[in-house]
Target: Endonuclease III
Amino acid sequence: MKSSAVRYILDTIGEMFPDAHCELNHANAFELTIAVLLSAQCTDATVNKVTADLFRKYKTPQDYVSVPLEELEQDIRRIGLYRNKAKHIRNLCLILMEQYGGEVPERHDQLVTLPGVGRKTANVVVSNAFGVPAIAVDTHVERVAKRLALAGIGDSVLEVEKKLMKAVPREEWTLTHHRLIFFGRYHCKAQNPLCQVCPLLDVCREGKKRMKSAQISKTKKQAKAPKS
Model:
Protein backbone atom coordinates (compact mmCIF):
# COMPACT_ATOMS: atom_id res chain seq x y z
CA MET A 1 0.00 0.00 0.00
CA LYS A 2 1.24 3.48 -0.87
CA SER A 3 2.34 5.70 2.00
CA SER A 4 -0.29 8.28 1.00
CA ALA A 5 -3.04 5.67 1.43
CA VAL A 6 -1.66 4.66 4.82
CA ARG A 7 -1.56 8.31 5.85
CA TYR A 8 -5.17 8.73 4.78
CA ILE A 9 -6.23 5.75 6.89
CA LEU A 10 -4.27 6.88 9.96
CA ASP A 11 -5.54 10.46 9.75
CA THR A 12 -9.14 9.37 9.26
CA ILE A 13 -9.11 7.01 12.22
CA GLY A 14 -7.29 9.68 14.21
CA GLU A 15 -10.10 12.14 13.51
CA MET A 16 -12.67 9.55 14.58
CA PHE A 17 -10.87 8.58 17.80
CA PRO A 18 -8.45 11.37 18.77
CA ASP A 19 -8.50 10.39 22.45
CA ALA A 20 -7.96 6.64 22.04
CA HIS A 21 -6.10 5.16 24.99
CA CYS A 22 -5.53 1.99 26.99
CA GLU A 23 -8.89 1.13 28.56
CA LEU A 24 -7.46 -1.26 31.15
CA ASN A 25 -7.44 0.51 34.50
CA HIS A 26 -4.02 0.49 36.17
CA ALA A 27 -1.80 2.68 38.32
CA ASN A 28 1.63 1.30 37.44
CA ALA A 29 3.54 -1.16 35.25
CA PHE A 30 2.85 -4.08 37.59
CA GLU A 31 -0.91 -3.56 37.59
CA LEU A 32 -0.90 -3.10 33.82
CA THR A 33 0.97 -6.39 33.35
CA ILE A 34 -1.57 -8.22 35.51
CA ALA A 35 -4.50 -6.56 33.74
CA VAL A 36 -3.23 -7.40 30.24
CA LEU A 37 -2.52 -10.98 31.30
CA LEU A 38 -6.12 -11.25 32.53
CA SER A 39 -7.51 -9.71 29.35
CA ALA A 40 -6.64 -12.67 27.11
CA GLN A 41 -9.94 -13.95 25.66
CA CYS A 42 -11.80 -11.54 27.93
CA THR A 43 -13.19 -8.02 27.51
CA ASP A 44 -11.47 -5.00 29.05
CA ALA A 45 -14.75 -4.11 30.76
CA THR A 46 -14.85 -7.43 32.62
CA VAL A 47 -11.17 -7.16 33.55
CA ASN A 48 -11.71 -3.68 34.97
CA LYS A 49 -14.59 -4.95 37.12
CA VAL A 50 -12.37 -7.69 38.54
CA THR A 51 -9.26 -5.59 39.03
CA ALA A 52 -11.21 -2.90 40.88
CA ASP A 53 -11.24 -5.26 43.88
CA LEU A 54 -8.10 -7.19 42.97
CA PHE A 55 -5.81 -4.13 42.97
CA ARG A 56 -7.17 -2.99 46.33
CA LYS A 57 -6.31 -6.36 47.84
CA TYR A 58 -3.00 -7.01 46.10
CA LYS A 59 -0.43 -4.22 45.82
CA THR A 60 2.85 -6.08 45.28
CA PRO A 61 4.11 -9.43 43.92
CA GLN A 62 4.56 -10.52 47.54
CA ASP A 63 0.84 -10.01 48.16
CA TYR A 64 -0.09 -12.40 45.36
CA VAL A 65 2.21 -15.21 46.49
CA SER A 66 1.30 -14.87 50.18
CA VAL A 67 -2.23 -16.25 49.67
CA PRO A 68 -3.27 -19.78 48.70
CA LEU A 69 -3.64 -20.28 44.96
CA GLU A 70 -7.28 -21.22 45.49
CA GLU A 71 -7.95 -17.81 47.03
CA LEU A 72 -6.44 -16.00 44.07
CA GLU A 73 -8.49 -18.19 41.73
CA GLN A 74 -11.67 -17.12 43.51
CA ASP A 75 -10.64 -13.47 43.29
CA ILE A 76 -10.47 -13.67 39.49
CA ARG A 77 -13.17 -16.29 38.97
CA ARG A 78 -15.21 -14.03 36.67
CA ILE A 79 -12.31 -14.00 34.20
CA GLY A 80 -12.13 -16.65 31.50
CA LEU A 81 -9.45 -19.32 32.04
CA TYR A 82 -9.10 -18.04 35.61
CA ARG A 83 -7.30 -21.13 36.93
CA ASN A 84 -4.49 -20.94 34.38
CA LYS A 85 -4.26 -17.18 34.77
CA ALA A 86 -4.01 -17.48 38.54
CA LYS A 87 -1.06 -19.87 38.13
CA HIS A 88 0.58 -17.51 35.63
CA ILE A 89 0.17 -14.56 38.00
CA ARG A 90 1.61 -16.48 40.91
CA ASN A 91 4.63 -17.74 38.94
CA LEU A 92 5.15 -14.32 37.35
CA CYS A 93 5.23 -12.71 40.78
CA LEU A 94 7.73 -15.25 42.06
CA ILE A 95 10.06 -14.48 39.15
CA LEU A 96 9.68 -10.72 39.67
CA MET A 97 10.68 -11.17 43.31
CA GLU A 98 13.56 -13.55 42.61
CA GLN A 99 15.06 -11.92 39.52
CA TYR A 100 13.90 -8.31 39.28
CA GLY A 101 13.61 -7.03 42.83
CA GLY A 102 9.83 -7.15 42.68
CA GLU A 103 9.68 -4.75 39.73
CA VAL A 104 8.41 -5.32 36.19
CA PRO A 105 11.37 -5.34 33.78
CA GLU A 106 11.37 -2.63 31.12
CA ARG A 107 12.91 -4.67 28.30
CA HIS A 108 10.69 -6.50 25.82
CA ASP A 109 12.96 -9.57 25.70
CA GLN A 110 12.72 -9.90 29.47
CA LEU A 111 8.97 -9.43 29.61
CA VAL A 112 8.20 -12.19 27.11
CA THR A 113 9.99 -14.72 29.34
CA LEU A 114 7.49 -14.15 32.15
CA PRO A 115 4.63 -16.67 32.61
CA GLY A 116 1.49 -15.63 30.77
CA VAL A 117 3.23 -12.73 29.01
CA GLY A 118 3.36 -13.08 25.25
CA ARG A 119 4.48 -10.64 22.61
CA LYS A 120 1.19 -8.69 22.65
CA THR A 121 1.26 -8.23 26.42
CA ALA A 122 4.90 -7.19 26.34
CA ASN A 123 4.17 -4.63 23.63
CA VAL A 124 1.33 -3.14 25.65
CA VAL A 125 3.48 -2.89 28.77
CA VAL A 126 6.57 -1.36 27.17
CA SER A 127 4.51 1.18 25.23
CA ASN A 128 2.05 2.23 27.94
CA ALA A 129 4.17 1.84 31.06
CA PHE A 130 7.63 2.69 29.76
CA GLY A 131 6.99 4.90 26.73
CA VAL A 132 8.66 2.62 24.18
CA PRO A 133 6.92 2.77 20.77
CA ALA A 134 5.19 -0.53 20.00
CA ILE A 135 2.18 -1.96 18.19
CA ALA A 136 0.36 -4.71 20.04
CA VAL A 137 -1.80 -6.79 17.74
CA ASP A 138 -4.99 -7.98 19.41
CA THR A 139 -8.12 -9.26 17.66
CA HIS A 140 -9.32 -5.73 16.87
CA VAL A 141 -6.01 -4.58 15.40
CA GLU A 142 -5.64 -7.76 13.36
CA ARG A 143 -9.18 -7.53 11.98
CA VAL A 144 -8.94 -3.85 11.05
CA ALA A 145 -5.48 -4.19 9.52
CA LYS A 146 -6.65 -7.00 7.27
CA ARG A 147 -9.93 -5.35 6.28
CA LEU A 148 -8.13 -2.14 5.32
CA ALA A 149 -5.42 -4.05 3.42
CA LEU A 150 -2.69 -2.90 5.79
CA ALA A 151 -1.91 -6.61 6.06
CA GLY A 152 -2.72 -9.75 4.13
CA ILE A 153 -5.81 -11.82 4.90
CA GLY A 154 -3.69 -14.88 5.64
CA ASP A 155 -1.00 -13.08 7.64
CA SER A 156 -0.09 -14.32 11.09
CA VAL A 157 -0.32 -11.97 14.07
CA LEU A 158 3.45 -11.43 13.91
CA GLU A 159 3.28 -10.66 10.20
CA VAL A 160 0.51 -8.14 10.83
CA GLU A 161 2.64 -6.49 13.50
CA LYS A 162 5.68 -6.29 11.23
CA LYS A 163 3.68 -4.82 8.34
CA LEU A 164 2.11 -2.20 10.58
CA MET A 165 5.51 -1.30 12.01
CA LYS A 166 6.82 -0.85 8.48
CA ALA A 167 3.85 1.19 7.27
CA VAL A 168 3.33 3.43 10.32
CA PRO A 169 5.93 6.00 11.46
CA ARG A 170 7.66 4.72 14.60
CA GLU A 171 6.66 7.71 16.70
CA GLU A 172 3.01 6.88 15.95
CA TRP A 173 3.11 3.18 16.77
CA THR A 174 1.59 3.35 20.25
CA LEU A 175 -1.10 5.89 19.36
CA THR A 176 -1.98 3.95 16.20
CA HIS A 177 -2.31 0.79 18.28
CA HIS A 178 -4.89 2.48 20.52
CA ARG A 179 -6.77 4.06 17.63
CA LEU A 180 -6.98 0.80 15.70
CA ILE A 181 -8.40 -0.87 18.80
CA PHE A 182 -11.02 1.85 19.25
CA PHE A 183 -11.88 1.72 15.56
CA GLY A 184 -12.30 -2.06 15.72
CA ARG A 185 -14.10 -2.10 19.06
CA TYR A 186 -16.59 0.70 18.45
CA HIS A 187 -16.91 1.02 14.66
CA CYS A 188 -15.42 -1.77 12.55
CA LYS A 189 -16.88 -4.53 14.71
CA ALA A 190 -16.40 -8.21 13.98
CA GLN A 191 -20.05 -9.09 13.39
CA ASN A 192 -21.82 -5.81 12.65
CA PRO A 193 -19.34 -3.26 11.28
CA LEU A 194 -20.78 0.17 10.54
CA CYS A 195 -19.89 0.01 6.85
CA GLN A 196 -22.81 2.19 5.74
CA VAL A 197 -21.41 5.21 7.62
CA CYS A 198 -17.71 4.39 7.43
CA PRO A 199 -15.43 7.11 6.00
CA LEU A 200 -12.94 4.41 5.00
CA LEU A 201 -15.36 2.32 2.95
CA ASP A 202 -13.58 3.26 -0.27
CA VAL A 203 -10.36 1.58 0.91
CA CYS A 204 -11.92 -1.34 2.81
CA ARG A 205 -12.13 -4.60 0.87
CA GLU A 206 -14.34 -6.22 3.51
CA GLY A 207 -16.68 -3.25 3.58
CA LYS A 208 -17.06 -3.18 -0.18
CA LYS A 209 -17.99 -6.87 -0.18
CA ARG A 210 -20.52 -6.38 2.60
CA MET A 211 -22.16 -3.39 0.95
CA LYS A 212 -22.30 -5.15 -2.42
CA SER A 213 -23.84 -8.22 -0.81
CA ALA A 214 -26.36 -6.04 1.03
CA GLN A 215 -27.31 -4.30 -2.20
CA ILE A 216 -27.80 -7.62 -4.01
CA SER A 217 -30.01 -8.88 -1.18
CA LYS A 218 -32.03 -5.68 -1.26
CA THR A 219 -32.50 -5.93 -5.02
CA LYS A 220 -33.66 -9.55 -4.74
CA LYS A 221 -36.17 -8.66 -2.03
CA GLN A 222 -37.52 -5.81 -4.11
CA ALA A 223 -37.88 -8.13 -7.12
CA LYS A 224 -39.81 -10.67 -5.05
CA ALA A 225 -42.04 -8.11 -3.40
CA PRO A 226 -45.66 -8.19 -4.70
CA LYS A 227 -46.46 -5.31 -7.00
CA SER A 228 -49.39 -3.12 -6.04
About this structure: The chain has two domains: 1-191, 195-224. The CA atoms of residues 135 and 157 lie 11 Å apart. Residues 195-224 form one domain.
